[in-house]
Write a sequence for this structure.
């Protein structure tokens, strides 16, 4: 199956944009061969990757992905050594293959999944020819689900940053906002631990239940 | 790509850290190292970051946002606070992580908090690479050590907490306002006032209340009644002029020491403008104490025979034990013992001089060793000698024989008063130690020029000389000449340093302490001596006049590269070891056995053990300094 995907990738992309670099192909193949990530690990054993996009605007149809920032959260801490950032103007294939390598099989944490996820997946599809299968968690819903005493409804990132008194070194920057989102995710982990839901699957269930609840009401 | 992202986050952490001390003053490489290794974690309100039960801390925490409460746990309070709150920029647990031991505090987030953390290894690396951070931690630990010592003294005192301690400021001790009159007041009016007010003393002060004299009840008989003094004449004519006075901020200890030193029973307490605040009497200071300081002092000064001095010597010992129980620090305590022992020795000398015709002989009595350093503990044998100058055109030998005869009587008198004769015969009656100034200089020069092991040993005893009686100038001259000789012979100091380094602090890699075969630590040989030896070398190199270890260390601050904070920590370490020595001698004297400065660390409580370890670390730092200075 991998072979089929690769040959399709190479042949389809080959004519339009030139062949993918060998190293990019190797990276994509290595990522594809990873075992499925575990979703049942407690926070102190787990690795999550916060991914945040920087686009030319908020219109999914017209605007394009400019840059991506990503931060890994391992054992409940944010480490500067575990951070990634790239713009997509030059060699977007290499950048996205790199991003996938950085993410590995960890669950992905975003703020406002519909936008971030669509932007990212479309970029993957357009540059490397497939949409990676990832486990997504969306703080847009998780935060009000876990901190109803602060906000009952989903609100903007800036509101949550204000609520937790979180600052960042550069707003509207892929990594700058990503750093704030990562800090918010730490608070989510801590709160969920108190509820016995501190695994990726547990968080996914909380998010799902909250969205169901909102749809019905 | 990842490097770029890391740089952005490191930059963000650096910007944050630069708002706070000590990070804002830190070397750029060290700050970069810290920012690169600092990871951020979240601690929700109510969660524990660190408790004593967690064992050796694995991280140093730096609060980024929120509030962390540090609270004392366990039966022994170590610091003076029971709980403090730490905010952004503050870090913990410096003491515990430095010492590789569990924290004594529990750290709990009182607000939702974010903290940076670095691993213990990274902390130690940071201390190694950053002198600024190192100094910050040293200072912190020194404060902790100081607080611990105060705590220790408090717990050692068996008396209730409300009892006055020797550290109480005099301002708090003085009660009702002192009675005072102007110098032109008639003596009768002054005495009537004393009688009405039921006071034992009358202060004479100028119109601005600045004391100029005092008249006490004990002066009445000799100065007024017996001479038939005319009571209409002004009090200025019978008062004691220039009375001793101390500022209100001075401690009870200072007052007691002044009373002992000057042999007086009343002290005036003045404010910052030298205006009279009140009177402190000996009774105020030692109302609860059986043995009174001045009684001892008066007993010594008026003693007409050795038997009386023997009793005084026993009293000194008893007083020292009381003072230990009252929580007087080791430095003050040893000064105290030293002051009284000096008085005792001077009296023994004075009594001996009555039987020996030494008029016209220019000489001085030297104290060597711990006595020379003002560091006597309760069981010290005598180390003394004589320096003298032979008058021109006179034969030296007959004079020396007279001095030795005199010295023998002093040595025997001191032995009778509880200062055992020196086993090594380091006594003034030894002809080898009753030398002229020139002979002493030559002897010192010989040791310095040919520093064999015996010479180095001699240097460690005799270079700590101090004049106890006689012509002080002889001591100054010898000190100046000694400092000049050692500075001209750096190789001698280098050998002394190498000799000092032969006794490492008894700190173990696996166990806390390295023990002697009998399971004890020799607090003198492996503890106090390490500080004393290093301080002596600093003093000789820099040319410090003082013979006291603490003074030598303190004076070396301004003159060598050691910082004041580091020295304060070293001095604290030295004092703690001295305190343990005094305390173990105290216990010895109660059960009648002598253990010769040995202590079994297993018999110490956890707190003592911890501080002792800290003290030995300070000794190690001193030795490291020597190693660096002399490339050993």
């Amino acid at each position: 199956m991998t072979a089929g995907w690769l040959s399709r990738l190479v042949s389809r992309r080959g004519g339009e944009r030139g062949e993918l670099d060998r190293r990019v192909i190797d990276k994509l193949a290595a990522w594809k061969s990873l075992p499925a990530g575990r979703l049942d690990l407690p926070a102190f054993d787990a690795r999550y990757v916060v991914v945040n996009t920087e686009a030319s605007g908020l219109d999914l149809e017209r605007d394009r992905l400019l840059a991506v920032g990503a931060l890994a959260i391992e054992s409940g801490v944010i480490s500067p050594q575990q951070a990634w950032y790239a713009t997509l103007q030059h060699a977007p294939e290499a950048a996205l293959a790199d991003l996938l390598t950085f993410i590995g099989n960890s669950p992905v944490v975003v703020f406002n999944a519909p936008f971030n996820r669509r932007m990212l997946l479309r970029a993957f599809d357009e540059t490397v020819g497939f949409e990676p299968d990832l486990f997504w968690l969306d703080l847009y819903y998780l935060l009000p689900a876990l901190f109803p005493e602060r906000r009952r409804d989903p609100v903007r990132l800036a509101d949550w940053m204000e609520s937790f008194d979180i600052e960042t070194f550069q707003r509207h920057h892929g990594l700058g906002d990503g750093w704030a989102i990562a800090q918010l995710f730490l608070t989510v982990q801590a709160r969920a631990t108190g509820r016995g839901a501190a695994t990726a699957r547990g968080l996914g269930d909380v998010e799902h239940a909250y969205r169901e609840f909102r749809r019905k009401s | 790509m990842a490097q770029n992202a890391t740089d952005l986050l490191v930059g963000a952490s650096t910007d944050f850290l630069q708002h706070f001390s000590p990070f804002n003053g830190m070397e750029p490489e060290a700050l970069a190292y810290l920012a690169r290794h600092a990871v951020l974690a979240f601690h929700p309100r109510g969660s524990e970051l660190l408790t004593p039960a967690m064992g050796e801390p694995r991280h140093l925490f730096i609060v980024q946002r929120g509030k962390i409460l540090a609270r004392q746990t366990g039966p022994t309070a170590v610091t003076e606070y029971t709980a403090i709150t730490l905010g952004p920029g503050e870090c913990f647990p410096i003491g515990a992580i430095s010492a590789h031991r569990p924290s004594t505090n529990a750290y709990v987030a009182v607000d939702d908090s974010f903290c940076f953390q670095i691993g213990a290894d990274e902390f130690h690396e940071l201390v190694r690479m950053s002198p600024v951070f190192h100094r910050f931690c040293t200072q912190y630990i020194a404060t902790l050590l100081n607080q611990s010592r105060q705590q220790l003294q408090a717990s050692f005192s068996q008396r209730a907490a409300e009892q006055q301690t020797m550290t109480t400021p005099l301002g708090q001790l003085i009660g009702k306002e002192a009675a005072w009159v102007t110098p032109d007041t008639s003596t009768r009016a002054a005495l009537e006032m004393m009688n009405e007010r039921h006071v034992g003393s009358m202060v004479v002060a100028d119109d601005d209340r600045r004391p100029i004299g005092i008249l006490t009840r004990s002066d009445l008989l000799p100065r007024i009644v017996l001479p038939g003094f005319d009571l209409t004449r002004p009090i200025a004519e019978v008062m004691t002029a220039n009375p001793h006075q101390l500022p209100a901020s001075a401690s009870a200890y200072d007052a007691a020491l002044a009373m002992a030193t000057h042999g007086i029973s009343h002290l005036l307490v003045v404010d910052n403008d030298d205006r009279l605040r009140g009177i402190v009497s000996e009774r105020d200071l030692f109302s609860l104490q059986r043995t009174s300081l001045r009684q001892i002092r008066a007993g010594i000064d008026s003693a007409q025979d050795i038997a009386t001095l023997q009793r005084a010597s026993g009293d000194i010992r008893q007083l020292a034990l009381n003072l230990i129980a009252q929580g007087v620090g080791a430095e003050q305590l040893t000064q105290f013992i030293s002051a009284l022992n000096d008085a005792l020795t001077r009296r023994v000398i004075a009594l001996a001089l009555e039987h020996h015709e030494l008029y016209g002989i220019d000489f001085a009595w030297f104290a060597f060793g711990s006595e020379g350093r003002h560091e006597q503990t309760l069981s010290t044998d005598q180390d003394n000698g004589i320096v003298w100058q032979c008058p021109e055109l006179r034969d030296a030998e007959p004079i020396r024989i007279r001095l030795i005869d005199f010295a023998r009587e002093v040595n025997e008198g001191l032995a009778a008063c509880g200062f055992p004769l020196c086993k090594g015969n380091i006594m003034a009656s030894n002809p080898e130690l009753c030398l002229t100034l020139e002979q002493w200089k030559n002897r010192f020069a010989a040791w310095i020029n040919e520093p064999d092991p015996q010479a180095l040993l001699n240097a460690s005893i005799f270079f700590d000389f101090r004049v106890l009686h006689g012509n002080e100038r002889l001591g100054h001259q010898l000190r100046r000449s000694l400092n000049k000789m050692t500075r001209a012979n750096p190789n001698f100091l280098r050998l002394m340093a190498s000799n000092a380094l032969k006794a490492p602090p008894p700190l173990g890699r696996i166990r806390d302490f390295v023990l002697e075969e009998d399971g004890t630590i020799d607090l003198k040989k492996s503890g106090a001596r390490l500080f004393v030896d290093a301080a002596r070398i600093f003093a000789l190199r820099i040319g410090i006049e003082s013979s006291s270890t603490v003074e030598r260390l303190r004076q070396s601050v301004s003159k060598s590269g050691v910082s004041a904070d580091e020295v304060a920590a070293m001095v604290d370490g030295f004092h703690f070891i001295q305190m343990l020595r005094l305390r173990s001698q105290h216990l010895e004297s109660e059960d009648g056995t002598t253990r010769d400065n040995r202590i079994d660390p297993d018999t110490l409580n956890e707190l003592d053990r911890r501080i002792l370890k800290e003290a030995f670390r300070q000794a190690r730092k001193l030795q490291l300094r020597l190693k660096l200075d002399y490339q050993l």
Summary: Residues 50 and 81 of chain A are 14 Å apart (CA to CA). The longest strand of chain A covers residues 77-87.
